[in-house]
Predict the structure.
Amino acid sequence: MTPIYVIKEQIYDAILIDDDILMHQTWQLSASAHGKKIKNFTHPSELISEHMMFSADTPVYIDSNLGNGLRGEIIAEDIYKSGFRNIYLTTGCEAHEFPPLPCLKGVVGKMPPWI
């Protein structure tokens, strides 16, 4: 008989994808101070491989510059295809510097959303 595995969604207030560990620490400290729960990833493939562990409603914040030429605005489409619908690009640039992307809810700064 084949075993059946049940995956329970984990509830988070936000998911951050950023290659900068200092940004992870900043968001984590802020989340703790505001009673929020956050999951951090350094590479988008980590989230995509674990996407079934999270509610599709969880806001995903992805850095525009993920290092090694990897662009968050491009990867956001793969995250969208994996089921997430609340995807935001986090960047120090202005929103008008990016073309409209249907998979993004918006372009925001680098500060955690609850501040």
